[in-house]
Specification:
- The protein is α+β, with helices and mostly antiparallel strands.
- The chain has one domain: Glutaredoxin, CATH 3.40.30.10.
- Helices cover 22% and strands 40% of the residues.
- It contains 4 helices and 11 strands; from the N terminus they run H-E-H-E-H-E-E-H-E-E-E-E-E-E-E.
- A hairpin with a 3-residue loop joins strand 3 and strand 4.
- The longest helix has 14 residues.
Length: 232
Amino acid sequence: MARLGALLTAFLITLAAPAAAQERPVLVELYTSQGCSSCPAADAFLHKLAEREDVIALALHVDYWDYIGWKDSFARPEYTARQRAYAKVANRRMVYTPQMIINGADHVVGTRPMDVTDLIRKHHGGAAKVALSVAEHPGRLEIDATAAAGTAGTATVRLFRYIPQETVAIKRGENAGKSVSYSHIVTDMDVVADWDMRQPLDIDVPLNGDLPAVVVIQRNSFGPVEAVAKID
């Protein structure tokens, strides 16, 4: 664990560096649990990733570790189902924590900062196929998207809401006695459209409350992320 902490510390300066303005953001999803002893290091790493302008970070807490003594207060079965769906698409039999999924395409252990950073850089290098814009209005969110000429197929448009940060005192389980800070904790995840990419997308969706929102456009529901945008 000490070596892992040193590795994470070594990367913090790089991770905090501002991104070039022209870089489109990369989505990083962390699958984590309050009941997982390996997860706090990944949770701290996600906090640093969330500070980058070129990354949109989301923490989805899964419920399959709840049986070992501590029920994760942020976990929802639909987040576990999302992770399992990713595993199925990737022909993987098992799910685990902490896991990071980069732009819906690359799976990596969440405590491997070098691998995660390299994958983020890789996804910055790809050509954008979808132009996405989001605008907040009273009580609603306007979502507009256009795919590049010749792009076909369907994409799923999801709206995520998240809590920016919260600290939890864990009393039982593998992390008993620890207070762990979590960042970008997903509270809601909804499909708001199935998009035929041959046509422009222009929709309004309800937006209640003050929590930040993230819009994700993803191929075939659990395929590569074509575009992602955030409203603070």
